[in-house]
Write a structure and sequence with these properties.
heterodimer, A: mainly alpha, MetI-like fold, 9 helices, B: mainly alpha
């Protein structure tokens, strides 16, 4: 066995930039997923039967097909719909759509765990519908489901590696380029696997910090 | 430009066969090694627990795609030259062992401690305690999550396409490149995955609700 990590490590500026790209994809994807999640739950709880059915269909469709197929589909579908985006933006949309479907289910679970009396109390106090959803339902619900949401978002961070299949700019695509130049496949992928491990720990600690900062007071 | 006819559909179905085979190998292998990981994870010896915890943390903290790459390119360095499907199957098995191990650790620890103590008081040995008392109950508790992971694994086999193995997604890519009809092809491919995964998801969901009801 002859291993040579040297040639890989001399490319560290590229690897670091790739890691930045991965972080960018992950954070953008999370934000989009959160937006889709909240809107989806709002529609799911609205009175519109069609809206509810569409959200359910969306969630089931996304959760029961592979991300790789989804990203290919979106990659080819957007240009046909007249939308021209670069691969990185396309990847963010795919990540947001995928994460959004999971976020809808997670947030809905939290929202349903909020007792009905709480909504009624809000109504009695004269709060408007929007205010009740935002302040009395959504925030406590997010607090309740924060751990599940956090682990789903760590999964999303790891999923960004699949964006290499449409050549988005992130760590895995950088690694594939270095692999192509050096033929040190194992060394390259071993190195970035360690980088992903460090990244997921970083994201995990970040979520722990957010949880402590934003959701500290007792919820029960 | 070719159209999508019977040969293309048959090619996709052959890919589907490989997807099912990879899922089956990964799941069966994952069950066997996952059981070992779970038992080591709840072992009385601390260093054993640490090893299992590290195994789980590594597989849950890195992308499945990287696990495939590292195994795929790592095995030849060890002098092993398995076929592509073999390397993918090994990676999926290791991946599944970590996830299933963690799911079953949770289930084993969810069985009330009083039962282990009662068994201990009755003089029941470890082997019998696990086999006859803890694991049957843990199995029932873990079923929804285990089915959920099976869906995850089935979808995960699509990543074998990126290392070039021709399963359903790679077959879809090839047909798409030949016919220039990516939306129809990936629509069909997505539908095939959906038809496999959705019934499993519904089954898992139903099981979860039944367990929640029983617990009340």
């Amino acid at each position: 066995m002859n291993l040579d990590f040297g040639v890989v490590w001399t490319r560290w500026p590229e690897l670091l930039a790739g890691l930045g790209g991965t972080l960018f994809l992950a954070v953008s994807g999370m934000i989009l997923a959160l937006v889709i999640g909240v809107i989806g739950v709002a529609i799911r709880r609205s009175n519109s039967r069609i809206g509810q059915a569409l959200v359910i269909a969306f969630v089931e469709l996304i959760r029961n097909t592979p991300f790789l197929v989804q990203i290919f589909f979106i990659f080819f579908a957007l240009p046909l719909a007249g939308v021209r985006l670069n691969p990185t933006t396309t990847a963010i949309i795919a990540l947001g759509v995928n994460g959004g479907a999971y976020a809808i289910e997670i947030i809905r679970g939290g929202v349903e765990s909020i007792p009905k009396g709480q909504t009624e109390a809000g109504l009695a106090l004269g709060l408007r519908q929007g205010e009740i959803f935002r302040k009395i339902i959504l925030k406590p619900a997010l607090r309740a489901v924060f751990p599940s949401l956090a682990s789903q978002f760590i999964l999303l961070t790891l999923t960004t590696s699949i964006a290499t299949s449409i050549s988005a700019f992130e760590l895995t695509s950088v690694a594939q380029r270095i692999d192509g130049d050096t033929f040190r496949s194992f060394e390259v992928y071993f190195t970035i696997t360690a980088m992903y491990l460090a990244l997921s720990w970083l994201v995990m600690s970040l979520f722990a910090l957010i949880s402590r900062a934003a959701f500290t007071y007792p919820t029960r | 430009m070719a159209s999508i006819g019977t040969p293309e559909l048959l090619f996709l179905l052959r890919g589907l066969g490989w997807t099912l085979a990879l899922t089956a190998i990964g799941f069966v292998g994952g069950i066997a090694f996952g059981l070992v990981v779970a038992l080591v994870r709840v072992s009385r010896r601390r260093w054993l627990r640490t090893i299992a915890a590290a195994w789980i943390a590594i597989f849950q903290g890195t992308p499945l795609l990287m696990q495939l790459f590292v195994v795929y390119f790592g095995l030849p360095l060890l002098g092993l030259e398995p076929p592509a499907w073999g390397a993918v199957a090994i990676a999926l098995t290791a991946h599944a062992s970590a996830y299933l191990g963690e799911i079953w650790r949770g289930a084993i620890q969810a069985v009330p401690l009083g039962q282990s103590e009662a068994a201990h008081a009755l003089g029941i040995k470890y082997r019998s305690l696990m086999r006859d008392i803890i694991l049957p109950q843990a199995f029932r508790l873990s079923l929804p999550a285990t089915i959920g992971f099976l869906v995850q694994l089935l979808k995960g086999t699509s990543l074998a396409a990126i290392v070039g193995f021709i399963e359903l997604t790679r077959a879809g890519q090839i047909v798409s490149n030949q016919t220039f009809k990516p939306l129809i092809v990936f629509g069909i491919v997505g539908l095939l995955y959906f038809l496999l995964c959705w019934p499993l998801s519904l089954w898992g969901g139903r099981m979860e609700r039944r367990l929640a009801r029983d617990r009340r």
